[in-house]
Amino acid sequence: MSYDLVVIGTGPGGYVCAIRAAQLGLKTAVVEKRATHGGTCLNVGCIPSKALLHASEAFEEANKHFGELGIDVGTPKLDLTKMQAFKQGGVDGNTKGVEFLLKKNKVDSYHGRGRIAGAGRVEVISDDGGNQMLETKSIVIATGSDVTRLPGVEIDEKTVVSSTGALELAQVPKKLVVIGAGVIGLELGSVWRRLGAEVTVIEYLDRVLPGMDGEVGKQFQRILAKQGMTFKLSTKVTGVAVADKGATVTVEPAQGGEAETIEADVVLVAIGRVPYTEGLGLETVGVATDEKGRVQTDSHYATNVTGIYAIGDVIAGPMLAHKAEDEGVALAEILAGQSGHVNYGVIPNVVYTFPEVASVGKTEEELKKDGIAYKTGKFPFTANGRAKANGTTDGFVKILADTETDRVLGVHIVGADAGNLIAEVAVAMEFAASAEDIARTCHAHPTLTEAVKEAALAVDKRAIHV
């Protein structure tokens, strides 16, 4: 078969790229190693984790907070099998939805492992060993990422699990040790804490959520500790010994010192992700990668080999599904002769715990490092009417604006529904808005969005409700 474009991988970047290319008139095919489309995100990442986050939040709400609302339902009982079925229903609905969209847009699908056999040639190797050769003008590598392994620690997805295994536990562990205080570790740790696990989070650095705003990290850690999580920061894991009933985790101070052991029923290794390029044949065709194994591309996502492009987790930048989607759209438009573009300064990042954490743009640490003078406006949810009425007063909104121009440079939110609240400021930043622009925009009352407006007012030291 001959195509204008063959996309290897149908995660958020790959399938979106393929659909947009087809919309623009390119004859397009996708190659997917899984039986279902959607990549890590839909199958074993974003979607199933959000389903369990939602379900576990509902369980804790019924268990601890319904009585405060005047709702007596007795003591709720956990049916983990049914909860896992609920999660799988969300996965199935989304993966089938992608399959439908590909068919609707007349994108041909091939299931098997894709390998770049040469310029304009993609070999599809099926599980039964059969193969098929696709001819194409352009190839897009959209193979995503894989979990980062901890040297000397074997992941068996039973006692020592990655994020994939942590989504499939058949029973709630009494003690869960999470290695890594990043987004994945804190999200999945919070799921199992709500369902009854005693959760200890071990982090090599001296803070949670590395890379996000420092003040946000500190307050968020306090909130999670108040909920019942235990943190061991500035601590490194030196070994995990698996026995018949659980594991023993050996740790010591990051800078060296006396070792100690922590017993666990399950150990979750969540120390990041790495680009997935296994079996693609990059070495054979000469596609260049960097020291981190990422495919090197130019500003138009082209590799050093003519006709081969790459997007998403496999290239530089934040490993976020929505970043990959935007790159997929941009690349499809570039290949169709249009001017695709991604504004990397306005890519939101969200932690889907409760409360949520969301950010977009620069952190205070980054602005200080770059020598940029800025003003800060902060507003706590304890002073927001809707948050008070809902009993969700943890957290705050912080807006960072340029001292001279008042242009919004970064926004950081800890609070209920932060993932949706961040969208307003992302749009504002896309249009180069000032804090004054947000402050002068009428926000509905009573809503959590008023905290965003008040933070914008606070940039000029004129917040009303605090």
Automatic annotation (TrEMBL):
It catalyses: N(6)-[(R)-dihydrolipoyl]-L-lysyl-[protein] + NAD(+) = N(6)-[(R)-lipoyl]-L-lysyl-[protein] + NADH + H(+). It is an enzyme of class 1 (oxidoreductase). Belongs to the class-I pyridine nucleotide-disulfide oxidoreductase family. It comes from Methylorubrum suomiense. Pfam families: Pyr_redox_2, Pyr_redox_dim. Its EC number is 1.8.1.4. Residues 3-328 form the FAD/NAD(P)-binding domain. Keywords: Disulfide bond, FAD, Flavoprotein, NAD, Oxidoreductase, Redox-active center. SUPFAM superfamilies: FAD/NAD(P)-binding domain, FAD/NAD-linked reductases, dimerisation (C-terminal) domain. Binds 1 FAD per subunit. This is Dihydrolipoyl dehydrogenase. The gene is lpd3. Residues 347-456 form the Pyridine nucleotide-disulphide oxidoreductase dimerisation domain. The active site is a redox-active disulfide bond. It comes from the Bacteria. Its cofactor is FAD. InterPro entries: Class-I_Pyr_Nuc-Dis_Oxidored (IPR050151), FAD/NAD-bd_sf (IPR036188), FAD/NAD-binding_dom (IPR023753), FAD/NAD-linked_Rdtase_dimer_sf (IPR016156), Lipoamide_DH (IPR006258), Pyr_nuc-diS_OxRdtase (IPR001100), Pyr_nucl-diS_OxRdtase_dimer (IPR004099), Pyr_OxRdtase_I_AS (IPR012999).
